[in-house]
Amino acid sequence: MNQDVLSKIVENNKGLISQGAVATYIPELAKVNKDYLGAVIAYPDGTMLSAGDTKVRFAIESISKTVVLALALLDNGEE
Question: Which domain, by its residues, includes 7?
Answer without folding.
Answer: 3-76
